[in-house]
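step: validate -> pass
step: tokenize input -> pass
step: predict -> running
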Amino acid sequence: MTLYEIERQIEEAIDKLFSAVDEETGEVDEAALHALDELKAERAVKMDNIGAYIKNLEAEVVALKEESKALAKRADTKARKIERLKEYVANNMLSRSETKYESTRVVFSFRKSEKVVIRDENAIPKKYLVKKVEFAPDKVAIKAALKAGSKVRGAEIVENQNLQVK
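step: predict -> pass
step: emit ->
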């Protein structure tokens, strides 16, 4: 029975109790009084059960949040391990001048990428600086200028080998 139903029955029991009072003697019907007491006890049990359920849910929420933190930490650890393993395989392949390894379960290959490495941020001309909270070199513009053959003091293009796992 729900709390709402118990409350409704308590109201009915109170109405019945008042209507069952002997007007001459003022005595109350014992059966109606007993029924009211049982409903009050049932309500108390229901309230206690709901309270215990809420406490369990709150404890579960805390546990889930803690587990979420632990899982995030584990995920970060695994991500770092992936990077170390990729570096390990890449170094091994490059030392053997391999560009691709393929088996039925995995393919290791390299793809070229380019990035601008800023050797001296203070030497970068202002036209290649973008306004952020602080000045920072505009690597996209610097890369375009270097590709076009311009000299940009303090910057160069470095070619990388990035390992792909499929």
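step: describe -> The chain has three helices and five strands.
step: cleanup -> pass
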